[in-house]
């Protein structure tokens, strides 16, 4: 089969990790006789430098014409002082919105060979951690009305959160479907003791579940309690659904619990099969261009793309297995290095994965 993949390298280590994922995809293509066509488009700081804006029209068009999108990372010190709508991050938010990617799946899984990397006590993670955070991605405070001005001689700023029943239902549907294939338990995170949007969220999730997934147990957890429970007993969680901002915060926490933010990938999907796949981590400008970053999250994001956008389950599994084998042989990039391991750079890591395919 033939697939057109739009590659948004972005900033910092973005180009390095995307190159690694492309190498692995090409190797899979050779083995299974698929052709992956890669077209690169600018986003984030790189786009600001070239076009004066973080998300040029050509990038949006390229993504909408592709079969799926692979993204490295955006942002860096160089663009930190630009106004809000000119920042690199705006490019990422913009492409999510333009492609209608309301569903962000962020699995936080402890890789067995990396259990020692978790910052939690061994007894808290000995039974593994395997959480899927389903984050609403195109609504809430990220996309609400913003204001910044002066009132009565004083400077003020305002961000607002809005959610409609339809927006809540469609993300609940994704999470419930996932839960139905796993533990049949869903945790919904909100702040219903304070926020009106959260009360609507809670009511809507329960009503939708009762009508469409009566066999799934839905439990509500307040976001502050969730932050605590995640470090107290992460093994209690399976599928978790939450709003855009809470999902942003909790997914970093869950990722760190696995000890290897450099290993975690995420998918963003809308109603169709075209998605955007990216590592959970950022652009790490401090180590960019040195060939020392960890490409595994991006390689695993590519594997998610094969499975969830292209339906290539075997090919996807083969990439995961190759990553596992390379870790089992003791190869580690600097971020997950432990004594006794063999330290490798980004390019070498990609080469080793290709060698296992
Ligand atoms: C993420 C990032 C983005 C977000 C930023 C870069 C806009 O933190 O994907 O989690 O807040 O969604
Ligand atoms: Mn984030």
Quick tags:
single chain; 357 residues; alpha/beta; Isopropylmalate Dehydrogenase; 2 domains; 10-stranded mixed β-sheet; two-stranded antiparallel sheet; 12 helices; binds 3-isopropylmalic acid; binds manganese (II) ion
**How helical, in percent, are the residues?**
40-55%
Output mean pLDDT.
Answer: 96
Beta strand count: 14
CATH arch. level architecture of the largest domain: 3-Layer(aba) Sandwich
CATH topology of the largest domain: Isopropylmalate Dehydrogenase
Strand order of the largest sheet: 2-1-3-12-11-4-5-10-8-9
| SSE sequence, one letter per element | EHEHHEHEHEEEHEHEHEHEEHHEEH
Distance between the termini: 18 Å
Nearest-angstrom radius of gyration?
A: 20 Å
Kindly describe this structure.
The protein is an alpha/beta fold and 357 residues long. The strands form three sheets. It has a ten-stranded mixed sheet, with helices on both faces. It has two domains: 1-104 and 265-357, Isopropylmalate Dehydrogenase (3-Layer(aba) Sandwich); 119-257, Isopropylmalate Dehydrogenase (3-Layer(aba) Sandwich), CATH 3.40.718.10. It contains twelve helices and 14 strands. The structure holds 3-isopropylmalic acid and manganese (II) ion.
């Amino acid at each position: 089969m033939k697939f057109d993949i739009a590659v948004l390298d972005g900033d910092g280590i973005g180009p390095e990790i995307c190159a690694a994922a492309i190498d692995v995809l090409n190797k899979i293509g050779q083995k299974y006789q698929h052709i992956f066509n890669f077209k690169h488009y600018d986003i984030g700081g790189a786009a600001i430098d070239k076009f004066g804006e973080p998300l040029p029209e050509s990038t949006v068009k390229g993504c909408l014409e592709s079969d799926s999108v692979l993204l490295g990372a955006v942002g860096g010190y160089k663009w930190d002082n630009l106004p809000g709508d000119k920042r690199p991050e705006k490019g990422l938010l913009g492409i999510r919105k333009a492609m209608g990617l309301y569903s962000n799946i962020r699995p936080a899984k402890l890789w067995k060979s990396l259990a020692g990397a978790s910052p939690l006590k061994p007894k808290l993670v000995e039974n593994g951690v395997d959480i899927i955070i389903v984050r609403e991605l195109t609504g809430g405070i990220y996309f609400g009305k913003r204001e910044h001005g002066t009132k009565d001689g004083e400077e003020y700023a305002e961000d607002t959160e809005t959610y409609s029943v339809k927006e809540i239902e469609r993300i609940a549907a994704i999470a419930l479907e996932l839960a139905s294939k796993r533990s049949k338990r869903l945790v919904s995170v909100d702040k219903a003791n304070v926020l009106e949007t959260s009360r609507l969220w809670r009511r809507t999730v329960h009503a939708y579940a009762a009508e469409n997934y009566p066999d799934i147990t839905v439990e509500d957890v307040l976001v502050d309690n969730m932050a605590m429970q995640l470090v107290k007993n992460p093994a209690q969680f399976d599928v978790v659904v939450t709003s855009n901002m809470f999902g942003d915060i909790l997914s970093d926490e869950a990722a760190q619990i696995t000890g290897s933010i450099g290993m975690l990938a995420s998918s963003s999907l809308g109603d169709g099969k075209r998605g955007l796949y990216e590592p959970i981590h950022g652009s790490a400008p401090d180590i960019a261009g040195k060939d020392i970053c960890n490409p595994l999250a991006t390689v695993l994001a590519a594997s998610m793309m094969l499975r969830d956008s292209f339906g290539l389950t075997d090919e996807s599994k083969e990439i995961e297995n190759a990553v596992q084998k390379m870790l089992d042989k003791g190869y580690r990039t600097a971020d997950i290095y432990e004594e006794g391991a063999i330290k490798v750079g980004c390019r070498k890591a990609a080469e080793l994965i290709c060698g296992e395919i």
